[in-house]
DNA sequence: CTGGGTCCCT
DNA sequence: AGGGACC
C-alpha cells in the first residue's frame, strides 16, 4: 500500500491535483491517484447518503445554575438556606439566594442598597473564587461523563450538544412515538404534531431533566436548562422559568422568543459596545436588526460581524459546542480604591503571585508566558480599559513552579512582574492604579508522550481542585446536510465533489462525520494513534446537524440582500422554503471568505494532544493529511 | 471598586 | 504583543 500516513510534509499541490479529475488524468501517477480518488469519491458518497437518511438538526442544552455562588455557600453552611443571603465582592452584591430576592434584593445591587432593602441580609464575602471554581468544574465534569461535548460559559453555565445521545435513544427505542416533553414548553405550545425535530427535542428534554437530577443528587446543586436547536436559542430559553426548571423551545416559536426580547442588548453576543453602535444606526429592538439591510451593517461592522449579528437577531446560530477542557490561562487579580506606592504594588503583586503559583502547581502544567495587567485611575471615569505587558517565562523559573519550589519561583516572578510594571508606569512620577492582575498563559503539559500521565489525565481527576486536561473537540456539523441535499437534487457530481472538497477545507465535521463510514481499507492504513482517536468516545458518531428537512413556516421577514450561493442550482434554491434559503445563504456567506485560502498542512499534530485551542481548529487539517494521497 | 475566563482583531 | 468585547 502506498503510505497514506507517512510524509506529512509533501506539497499541497499534489492534493490540489488529485482533486481535479482533469489534472488526475494529466498526471504522471495517474493510476495510483485514480485509485485514491475513487476511494475518496466512494467515501464521500456513502457518507452523503447518511445525510439523506438521518435527521439533521442539533439538540443543544444550556445549563444555568441558580444563584451559583449563593448555592455553594449554602452547601458549605446549610444554616444559610433559610436566611436572606448575599454574596459580596468588594462593595457589590454579586448574587443572592432566593430568600433574599423575595425581599427585593437583586443581583449586582450595591451592598448599601441591599442592606437598606433588607436589613437582615446575611453577607458572605465571595472574593476568593476557589470553592466556586472547584464546584464549577465538578459540574462540567459530571456533564462530560454523559457526553464529552460540553462547553463552559463562565463558572455557572454549560452548553452541551446531545444530538448523539438523542439519536442513540431514538434508535434504541424505535416505537417511542409518544414521548412527552419534560418540563415547560416555551409558549405552552400544545403537544403539536410530532415532527421529527420536535420528537428529538422532546428526547432532549428528558436528557436535560435527567442531568439536572444528577446534578442535584450528586452535587446538591439546582439549576435551569434550556433545550433548543442551537446555543443561542438554548441559552435564551433556559431562563424562561426561574429557579430550578427547564424549558424547551420548539422551532415554531423561534420568532416569538426573538421578538419578545426587546432590547438588542439582551441578545447573547451583543455586548455594550455593539449595542451602542447598533443604536447609532437607529436599531434598538431585535426586530429593527432583523429588518435592517445587511449592507448597512456591513459598513459599520464588516461582513463577518454583520452577518453574525443579523443571524443572531433571527435566532440563527451555527456555532458548534466546543468542549472546553482545561483552562487556557490562570489569573488572579485584585481591585482597590487607590494604589500609588511602588512598595504597595510590589506587595500586592507578591500576594497575588504566591496564590497563583500554588494554583498553577496543582494544575501541573508549566506556564510559558506571564502577563501583568493594571487599570489606571482616570478622572473621566474611564474605569475600564486595562493595560497589560507580557513576557516569556524563562524555563528555569517555569520549572520551579511545577516542581514545587514555590517561594523561589514567586520571588523571581515578582521581579519579572516589576519590570513589566515599569514598562507601563513611570514610578518616579505620581501614579494611581486601581487594579492589578497577574496571569499565566501559554500553558504546556510537561509530559511529551501522549501516554504520559500529565497530558491527558491531570485536569479533573487530580485533587478535587484541579480539573483534568481534555482534548478540545468541536462538532461542526450544520450546513452540510442541506447543501448535500441540494446537490443530490442537482445531480451534478462535479458540483458535489467540489463542494465536498471545500467542506474538507473548512469544516472539521467532514472528518468527524466521515469516520463511522470511513473505508475500512483506508482506516487500516492510518497510524495507530489516529485510529484510536477516531474510535475514541469523543468522536463516536458525530452526526450531521443543521436544517431540518421538515418544512417550517418562514418565521421571519425575508432578508432581501441575498445573492445565491454559487455552488447551488438556482432553480433548486429558489424552490426551497424561505427560511431554508436564508439559512443556506448565511452559512454560505460566512464561510465564503475562508474558502479562499485552504491553508492545509499545519505541522503534524493530533487533536488528542494537549493544548486544545489549536487542536480544535486544526483537527481537520491534521487528520486530513493522513487522507492526502501522495 | 466584581473576578474571573474566552475569543477575535490588529 | 496588546487591546477589545463578551459572558
Automatic annotation (TrEMBL):
Membrane spanning segments where?
none
Keyword list, A-Z: DNA synthesis, Transferase
**Which PROSITE patterns does this UniProt record tie to the protein?**
UMUC (PS50173)
Question: Which residues are in the UmuC domain?
Answer: 60-271
Which GO terms of the molecular function aspect are on file? damaged DNA binding; DNA-directed DNA polymerase activity
One of the protein's GO biological processes: translesion synthesis
User: Superkingdom of the source?
Assistant: Eukaryota
Q: Looking at the Swiss-Prot or TrEMBL record, what is one Pfam family this protein matches?
A: UBM
Q: Which residues form a coiled coil?
A: none
Stretches the record annotates as Disordered: 543-568, 587-630
Task: State the family named in the UniProt similarity comment for this chain.
Answer: Belongs to the DNA polymerase type-Y family.
> What's the name of the protein?
UmuC domain-containing protein
Q: Which organism is it from?
A: Gouania willdenowi
The major lineage groups are:
Eukaryota, Metazoa, Chordata, Craniata, Vertebrata
What gene is it encoded by? poli
Amino acid at each position: 500500500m502506498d503510505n497514506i500516513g507517512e510524509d506529512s510534509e509533501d506539497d499541497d499541490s499534489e492534493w490540489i491535483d488529485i482533486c481535479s479529475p482533469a489534472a488526475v488524468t494529466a498526471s504522471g501517477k495517474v493510476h495510483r491517484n485514480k485509485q485514491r480518488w475513487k476511494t475518496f469519491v466512494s467515501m464521500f458518497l456513502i457518507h452523503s447518503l447518511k445525510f439523506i437518511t438521518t435527521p439533521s438538526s442539533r439538540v443543544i442544552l444550556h445549563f444555568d445554575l441558580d444563584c451559583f455562588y449563593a448555592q455553594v455557600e449554602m452547601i458549605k453552611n446549610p444554616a444559610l438556606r433559610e436566611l436572606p443571603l448575599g454574596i459580596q465582592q468588594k462593595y457589590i452584591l454579586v448574587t443572592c439566594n432566593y430568600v433574599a430576592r423575595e425581599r427585593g434584593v437583586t443581583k449586582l445591587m450595591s451592598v448599601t442598597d441591599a442592606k437598606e432593602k433588607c436589613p437582615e441580609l446575611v453577607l458572605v464575602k465571595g472574593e476568593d473564587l476557589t470553592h466556586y471554581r472547584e464546584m464549577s468544574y465538578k459540574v462540567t465534569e459530571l456533564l462530560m461523563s454523559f457526553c464529552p461535548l460540553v462547553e463552559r460559559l463562565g463558572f455557572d453555565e454549560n452548553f452541551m450538544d446531545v444530538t448523539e445521545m438523542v439519536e442513540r435513544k431514538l434508535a434504541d427505542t424505535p416505537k417511542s412515538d409518544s414521548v412527552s416533553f419534560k418540563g415547560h414548553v416555551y409558549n405552552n405550545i400544545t403537544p403539536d404534531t410530532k415532527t421529527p425535530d420536535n420528537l428529538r427535542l422532546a428526547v432532549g428534554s428528558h436528557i436535560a431533566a435527567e442531568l439536572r437530577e444528577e446534578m442535584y443528587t450528586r452535587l446538591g446543586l439546582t439549576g435551569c436548562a434550556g433545550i433548543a436547536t442551537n446555543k443561542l436559542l438554548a441559552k435564551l430559553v433556559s431562563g424562561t422559568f426561574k429557579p430550578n426548571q427547564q424549558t424547551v423551545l420548539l422551532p415554531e416559536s423561534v420568532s416569538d422568543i426573538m421578538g419578545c426580547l426587546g432590547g438588542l442588548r439582551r441578545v447573547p453576543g451583543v455586548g455594550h459596545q455593539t449595542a451602542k453602535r447598533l443604536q447609532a444606526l437607529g436599531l434598538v429592538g431585535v426586530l429593527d436588526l432583523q429588518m435592517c439591510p445587511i449592507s448597512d451593517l456591513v459598513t459599520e461592522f464588516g461582513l463577518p460581524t454583520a452577518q453574525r449579528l443579523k443571524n443572531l437577531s433571527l435566532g440563527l446560530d451555527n456555532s458548534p459546542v466546543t468542549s472546553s477542557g482545561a483552562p487556557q490561562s490562570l489569573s488572579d487579580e485584585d481591585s482597590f480604591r487607590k494604589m500609588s506606592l511602588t512598595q504597595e504594588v510590589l506587595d500586592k503583586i507578591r500576594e497575588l503571585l504566591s496564590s497563583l503559583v500554588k494554583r498553577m502547581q496543582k494544575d501541573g502544567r508549566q506556564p510559558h508566558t506571564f502577563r501583568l495587567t493594571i487599570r489606571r485611575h482616570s478622572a473621566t471615569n474611564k474605569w475600564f480599559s486595562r493595560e497589560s505587558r507580557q513576557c516569556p517565562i524563562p524555563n528555569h523559573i517555569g520549572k520551579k513552579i511545577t516542581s514545587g519550589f514555590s517561594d523561589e519561583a514567586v520571588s523571581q516572578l515578582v521581579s519579572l512582574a516589576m519590570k513589566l510594571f515599569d514598562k507601563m508606569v513611570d514610578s518616579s512620577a505620581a501614579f494611581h492604579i486601581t487594579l492589578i492582575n497577574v496571569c499565566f498563559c501559554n500553558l504546556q503539559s510537561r509530559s511529551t508522550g501522549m501516554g504520559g500521565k500529565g497530558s491527558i489525565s491531570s485536569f479533573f481527576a487530580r485533587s478535587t481542585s484541579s480539573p483534568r486536561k481534555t482534548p478540545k473537540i468541536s462538532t461542526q456539523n450544520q450546513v452540510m446536510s442541506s447543501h448535500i441535499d441540494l446537490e443530490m437534487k442537482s445531480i451534478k457530481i462535479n458540483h458535489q465533489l467540489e463542494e465536498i472538497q471545500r467542506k474538507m477545507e473548512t469544516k472539521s465535521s467532514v472528518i468527524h462525520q466521515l469516520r463511522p463510514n470511513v473505508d475500512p481499507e483506508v482506516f487500516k492504513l492510518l497510524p495507530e494513534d489516529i485510529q484510536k482517536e477516531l474510535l475514541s468516545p469523543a468522536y463516536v458518531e458525530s452526526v450531521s446537524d443543521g436544517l431540518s428537512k421538515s418544512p417550517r413556516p418562514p418565521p421571519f421577514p425575508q432578508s432581501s440582500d441575498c445573492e445565491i450561493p454559487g455552488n447551488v442550482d438556482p432553480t433548486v434554491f429558489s424552490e426551497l422554503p424561505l427560511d431554508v434559503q436564508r439559512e443556506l445563504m448565511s452559512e454560505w456567506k460566512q464561510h465564503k471568505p475562508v474558502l479562499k485560502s485552504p491553508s492545509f498542512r499545519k505541522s503534524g499534530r493530533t487533536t488528542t494532544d494537549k493544548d486544545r485551542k489549536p487542536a480544535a481548529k486544526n483537527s481537520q487539517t491534521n487528520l486530513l493529511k493522513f487522507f492526502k494521497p501522495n
